Amino acid sequence: MRARWIVVIALFAVGVIIAAALGVGAFLAAPASTEAGQNEPSSAADSGAPTEEDDDFGTVEVYTVNSDGTLDPEASGLTAEIWDTFIRVATLDVVSKVMTQYRVGDAPDSDTLAYVYQDDDPSRWILAANLATSENHNDLVATLVHEYAHILTLGQDEVTGDYSSCDTIVLDEGCADADSAILGFEEQFWAPYGDSAPALNNADADVAYDFYLAHEDDFVSDYAATNAVEDIAESFMTWVVEDDPTGTSVVAQKFAFFDAYPTLVAVRERIRAEFADDLGLSV
Mapping DSSP to helix (H, G, I), strand (E, B) and coil, where does residue 130 land? Predict the structure, then answer.
């Protein structure tokens, strides 16, 4: 399954819960204006990158991620800015170890801002981004945090690729490990809904929205109601870019869930410190 984020409307000020729509993940992006001469997308013709056709973004430039995290060929403009922002989110060490490819399209008619998916080697990942919906920096940062959450929760140290003897939950990426965050999240927050909950592989936006309307207070966004995989990524993203809520709501419980995972807490603290000025965060 591709992890996509279609950015719906995201206002990232302290205390504002983010409204997001489809990733793993997808989001509806609000139109963003660009000052003349700044962040202008580079075309395939002048980048030197090979091109391929993509179901979401049409013709995309394909960049190889080198072992040091640099791109081949070298990127420029908004293409480079998105990649540099992703490095700031995930760190150069992680990017150089797990990313193999970066795909960039310019599709104004697509609502998708970015998505990640596993390469043929399930330990490696590919990031795809849409220049047409990436010019709002706050939306971009939040989207890339969402996509990084998929890598954190669906990587090979959390999910085993062998489906043959799975006794937990089966995901598109494999069998969730018994001590994985995604299994714990699914058992605590999704299993109680029983058969009324969308399936783990649900990608139907109408199904997600109907479920969201029935349980609106349980989710940080309507996109989070797509399935448990999108919910953990959306909830993680909101936990990172917003201050903690008070009370005992389901959303507050989801944030508290992450607090039990020291690795995720460390990621949150690092990202909040890295983007404190960008997003106006308190650290």
Answer: strand
